[in-house]
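Please produce the structure of this protein holding magnesium ion.
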Amino acid sequence: MSARILRWREGDNEKLLKQAADILSHGGLVAIPTETVYGLAADATNGEAVARIFAAKGRPRFNPLIAHVADLAMARSCARFDARAERLAQAFWPGPLTLVLPLAEGAPVHPLVTAGLGTIAIRRPSGPSAELIARFGRPLAAPSANPSGRLSPTSAAHVAEGLGESIDAIIDAGPCRVGLESTIVSLAGQAPRLLRPGGLNAAQIEAVLGERLLAPETVSGEARKIEAPGMMSSHYAPRAALRLDAARVEPGEALLAFGPALPENAGEAVATRNLSPAGSLVEAAASLFAFLHELDRSGAAVIAVAPVPRQGLGAAINDRLARAAAPRA
Ligand code: TXA
Ligand code: MG
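Below is the modeled complex.
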């Protein structure tokens, strides 16, 4: 089986939405474009369909998934919103923010989605995926549409390359605007916690909350167990090894550059991509996974990565680079 490619066209997508919703209602898997990365979506109420996500990705069962919703009403049917959650949803949805909240009673979500936890991760994306969820009328469970432990996909071609033989359809709406997974904030405990840096700046979230987010490193005990699966160190891995903060390129290496100043010996690299010649972190985030995919395809055993500043979106970019560079499990 090869995934059907459904091309999104501005204006008329009636037929596409119907096809995709049909596949989902029969328990099938559809890759959906979101502003962050492509997601691998299934009907969140259908346990067998959700199980197929894990099978297709080769993902460990215990890892809970994000429930994607079309609007606030659907979000409130899944989770209990407090005043802080309402404020964040108001400020940043639709967008690259996932909230972890207490699971609502009678939530239209199979326990496999939450891995049986009393909390649920929810996100309201924008664009084609939001239209599909609205049409479908139920939440969609969706992790990133890549084989487990591999790079996240930011184009339909990435999805086809990794999962094309094991899913039903891919909605192709071009490259993802943000290019990094959503920022995950837990409001399930007393103090708000940043579980994963991502496409939305933590500082913007803190400004709306009026308080600091606990850093991921300070999360301990039960919460660490819960976040651990998605935070496995060898997540987001290309086949090549990554050498971070490279000041020079060694023989045989590919180069991932950032900004106008190139590392020593840059001309010797077997392949080069520059995340942002102008030094923009927004541009760099949007290109990160696509460029890692491309450099990986060059066949180089090592990708030298130039230093990327750590402020703002740079925190999330460096987080993904560190994971991609971590020793493989
Ligand atoms: O941008 C994104 O967030 C993309 C798009 C497709 O929406 N999705 C994504 O999903 O990155 P995934 O499955 O690769 O990452 C979801 C993360 C995992 O680290 C998981 O452990 C965490 O969310 N998570 C899910 N439910 C949780 C919960 N109840 N408590 C804590 N963490 C949770
Ligand atoms: Mg992922």
